[in-house]
């Protein structure tokens, strides 16, 4: 039986925060597919089984990431640390 990997949304937040070149949604998709696979799903403290697009939508709605033009940025003040 094949299991799909689930990564915490913090992995994406940290990835965006720690990069020297800002990610766009397109380049984030490329990175995730290359490093974590095409079937990866995401979870947060509140939600499970999210696609990358659903995770991005959730994180934007919670002001944990923002879009500046096409570039994604992490709002470090809004990240929970547990």
TrEMBL record:
InterPro entries referenced in this protein's UniProt entry, alphabetically? Metal-bd_prot_put
| UniProt-listed Pfam families | DUF2492
The source's superkingdom equals: Bacteria
Question: What is the protein named?
Answer: DUF2492 domain-containing protein
| Classification of source organism | Bacteria, Pseudomonadati, Pseudomonadota, Gammaproteobacteria, Vibrionales
């Amino acid at each position: 039986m094949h299991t799909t990997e689930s990564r915490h949304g913090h992995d994406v937040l940290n990835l965006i925060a720690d990069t020297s070149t800002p990610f766009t949604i397109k380049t984030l998709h490329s990175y995730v597919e290359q490093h974590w696979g095409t079937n990866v799903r995401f979870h947060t403290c509140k939600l499970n089984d999210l696609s990358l697009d659903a995770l991005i939508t959730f994180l934007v709605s919670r002001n944990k990431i923002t879009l500046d033009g096409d570039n994604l940025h992490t709002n470090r003040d809004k990240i929970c640390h547990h």
